[in-house]
TrEMBL record:
Domain of life: Bacteria
Pfam families membership: Suc_Fer-like
InterPro entries cross-referenced by the UniProt entry: Aim32/Apd1-like (IPR009737), Aim32/Apd1-like_bac (IPR010350), Thioredoxin-like_sf (IPR036249)
Protein source organism: Mojavia pulchra JT2-VF2
CDD domains: TRX_Fd_Sucrase
Protein's name in the database: Sucrase ferredoxin
SUPFAM superfamilies: Thioredoxin-like
Gene3D superfamilies, alphabetized: Glutaredoxin (3.40.30.10)
Signal sequence coordinates: none
Length: 325
């Protein structure tokens, strides 16, 4: 009997990874030693009050993603790291980070509630870490994440160390979608998603060097943008190169057909000079790229994976700001 791996099947069919990043207002990352069950917050070390909070947020359909995270020290340390990433409004480069060091995981639920109600909890800590990489290694959710995620995490630690990037921290993470693109990561505070990674493409992401075309294969999209705008954003990255990652961006859907087959998307970006540009694109469902496949190793039947393509793109406006010295 052949063992089915959804990531192998996705690669064989040539599924395009773009447009698969998930859009959330807030990420709540809780340090918790593995092993993790599926669902993750049923795991042994997760306290009852935190499990109840996650269930409540899920039930009310708030755009908040709770994830468990761990590194090689999580079993040994006598404190719990809590990271909350809040999406910035308007033109932005992603999310704003809040880091808390707590004595135990039992304190997490109260701190998160306080934060979501709009008050600033105690225990917040300044840190030199400016970038967090989450690698999905959640094998109990999908075996591809263990098969590809764990070795990737191991080698990625060495890659970060070899590059001397002291400001970058890497974590194992519970499931955040797209396991058929394993190994898959979220790069915070930007909130960009990547998949089908190897150490060479990971190095390009970390250093923003190398052939920008590698993003054609590995870039799942930017989590601050709706799916059709993720496709437009990738098009603009390929035009502007790695400089794009220094720009502030905001996107919106202007029009959408009833069947969702056609979308008019708009993306505005601001360069570091202060110049503003707005692009509009017609994004259409691409029947030639749309696939039927099993979305996970445990799926009983195939799902339709709708793929979009850009039919047209135009510069709608640009406002060049000149600075007088």
């Amino acid at each position: 009997m052949n063992t089915f791996f959804c990531s192998d099947y996705s690669r064989q069919t040539g599924e395009d990874v773009i447009g698969s990043a998930t859009n959330y207002e807030t990420y709540v990352l809780v340090e918790c030693p593995p092993p993790w069950k599926s669902p993750a917050f049923d795991s042994k070390w997760v306290p009852h009050n935190l499990k109840l909070l996650v269930e409540e947020v899920t039930r009310t359909k708030l755009p908040i993603k709770f994830l468990l995270i761990a590194n090689d020290l999580s079993h040994k340390v006598d404190q719990t790291t809590l990271l909350i990433y809040q999406k910035q409004s308007g033109l932005s480069q992603g999310y704003r980070k809040h880091e808390f060091k707590l004595a135990t995981i039992d304190q997490v639920a109260a701190i998160v509630k306080k934060f979501l109600w709009g008050s600033t909890p105690d225990y917040e800590k300044e840190t030199s870490i400016t970038r967090e990489i989450l690698v999905c290694t959640h094998g109990s959710h999908d075996k591809c994440c263990a098969r590809h995620g764990n070795p990737f995490y191991f080698h990625a630690q060495n890659t970060i160390s070899d590059l001397g990037l002291d400001n970058v921290r890497i974590w194992k993470s519970s499931h955040f979608g797209g396991h058929r693109f394993a190994p898959t990561i979220i790069d915070l505070p930007e909130g960009r998603y990547y998949g089908i990674l190897d150490q060479d493409s990971f190095k390009s992401i970390l250093t923003r060097t190398g052939d920008i075309q590698c993003l054609n294969k590995i870039y799942r999209g930017w989590g601050i943008l709706p799916t059709p705008i993720q496709i437009l954003e990738k098009e603009l990255i390929l035009r502007h190169g790695w400089d794009w990652f220094n720009y502030k961006v905001v996107g919106k859907i202007l029009e959408q057909s009833m069947d969702n087959n056609t979308v008019l998307a708009e993306l505005t970006f601001e360069k570091s000079t202060g110049s503003l540009y707005t692009y509009q694109a017609k994004v259409i469902k691409d029947e030639t790229k749309t696939l039927q496949l099993k979305s996970s190793c445990n799926a009983h039947k195939p799902s339709v994976m709708v793929q979009y393509t850009i039919a047209s793109v135009m510069l709608a406006s640009n406002k060049v700001v000149t600075c007088s010295v």
